[in-house]
Write a structure and sequence with these properties.
The chain folds into two domains: 229 residues, Chitinase A, domain 3 (Roll); 71 residues, no CATH class. 14% of the residues lie in helices and 26% in strands. It has five helices and 15 strands. Strand 14 and strand 15 form a beta hairpin. It is globular. The protein binds calcium ion (4 copies). The site of one calcium ion has 7 residues, from loops.
Length: 317
C-alpha cells in the first residue's frame, strides 16, 4: 500500500535531495534532474519495453476453463518469438498528461507533457470509476526489469486521489465487475472485473524520490483488476461528489483549494476541496450552501450572481 500514497506525501519526499560523497569525503547534495530531460529517457525506455515484451493475450482471447484473468508479461524470444509486441496490440492506448515541476516541489518552472500507456486486457462489465472515486481492486507494481516492489494479496479499497496521478488515470480507463463471488476454497473474487496494465514514465510516478524497491527516476508498471467502485464518491461527505470538486477542470482534484489563503493565515491544515467540508472557510458547511433534491440532483445557488457558487464564495451569503 505504501507506494500508492498520494501526491501530498510525494511532494514532501521530493524535498529531499539525493546525496553522494565528494572528494573530501563529505556529503554534497545533488539537485534533482529536470523533468524535460528525464521524460526523454523514460519515453525511450518505455518504447523499448513495449517493443520487446508481450502479454498473455491468447488466454484473454480464448480463456482456458481455469483462467484467473491475471496478466502475465514476458519477453519476446525463443518459443515466444512469434508473439505480438505490446506496442502493436490494438488494445494499447497512450495517454498524455501535463506535469509541472511544482508537482514534485522542484525548481525549474517546467511544464512537460508525459505519455503513459494503458492496455485493457479485459473490459469489465460494470461502470467505470472516475479519477476521484473509491475503488475495490487488486494490483501489483514492478519496474521495467521485472522487479516486483508491491502487490496486494486480495482486493483492497483505494481512494484514487490518494494514489499516483498516472495510476488513477489508468484505473479510470477500466470498467469494474459485477459482484463478489466466494470461491470453493474460501477466497473471494469479483465476476467480470476489468483487467489492465499501465506503463508510467517516472514523472507520472515518484520522479526523483526513492521508495522501497524503487530507485529515483524509475518508470513503473502496474497491473490492476478493478472489481467494484463507489459511484460519485464524496470523500469529505459535504454533498459534492469528489469529481465535481475539480474546480479548475484539469482532471486532478488534488490541486484545487478554494480557501488556501484563509487556511494559511489561520494556521490550518491545507485541505484540497475534495477533503474539505467547508470549501470557502466561511463557517457554513458546504452541505448547507448547496441544494440536493429528493432525487439526489445537485444545484449550486449563487446568491450574489457573481458567477461563483455560494459554497465557494466567502463574500456570500
Ligand atoms: Ca484540479
Ligand atoms: Ca480547503
Ligand atoms: Ca469539499
Ligand atoms: Ca462554506
Amino acid at each position: 500500500m505504501q507506494v500508492l500514497r498520494g501526491f501530498i506525501l510525494v511532494g514532501l519526499v521530493a524535498l529531499l535531495f539525493s546525496c553522494s560523497n565528494d572528494d573530501n569525503g563529505g556529503i554534497t547534495s545533488v539537485p534533482p534532474r529536470l523533468l524535460s530531460e528525464v521524460v526523454e529517457e523514460d519515453a525511450a525506455a518505455l518504447q523499448e519495453y513495449l517493443s520487446t515484451h508481450f502479454y498473455n493475450y491468447e488466454d484473454f482471447e480464448n480463456p482456458p476453463a481455469d483462467f484467473d484473468y491475471r496478466i502475465v508479461l514476458d519477453t519476446i524470444a525463443d518459443e515466444n518469438a512469434d508473439k505480438t509486441a505490446l506496442i502493436d496490440r490494438p488494445e494499447l492506448q497512450s495517454i498524455t498528461l501535463s506535469v509541472d515541476s511544482e508537482d514534485f516541489n522542484l525548481d525549474g518552472g517546467e511544464t512537460v507533457d508525459h505519455t503513459m500507456y494503458f492496455l485493457t486486457a479485459r473490459e469489465g462489465s460494470g461502470g467505470s470509476p472516475t479519477v476521484a472515486d473509491s475503488t475495490f481492486l487488486r494490483y501489483d507494481g514492478s519496474l521495467l526489469n521485472g522487479s516486483l516492489f508491491d502487490a496486494t494479496s486480495t482486493h483492497v479499497w483505494q481512494y484514487l486521489p490518494f494514489t499516483l496521478r498516472g495510476y488513477r488515470e489508468g484505473v479510470s480507463r477500466l470498467n469494474t465487475g459485477d459482484e463478489v463471488v466466494v470461491n470453493p476454497d474460501g477466497t473471494t473474487s469479483i465476476s467480470n472485473a476489468g483487467a489492465g496494465v499501465m506503463f508510467l514514465p517516472s514523472g507520472l510516478g515518484y520522479f526523483n524520490s526513492a521508495r522501497e524497491g524503487i530507485p529515483p527516476y524509475s518508470p513503473l508498471i502496474f497491473k490492476i483488476e478493478v472489481g467494484l467502485y463507489i459511484e460519485d464518491t464524496d470523500y469529505d461527505n459535504d454533498g459534492v461528489p469528489s469529481i465535481l470538486e475539480d474546480v479548475d477542470g484539469d482532471g486532478d482534484v488534488t490541486n484545487d483549494n478554494t480557501d488556501e489563503d484563509q487556511e494559511r493565515s489561520s494556521g490550518l491544515l491545507f485541505l484540497a476541496n475534495h477533503l474539505d467540508d467547508d470549501d470557502d472557510q466561511d463557517g457554513t458547511p458546504t452541505r448547507e450552501e448547496i441544494i440536493i433534491d429528493a432525487l439526489g440532483n445537485l444545484t449550486f445557488p449563487d446568491g450574489d450572481g457573481d458567477g461563483i457558487p455560494d459554497y465557494l464564495d466567502r463574500d456570500n451569503p
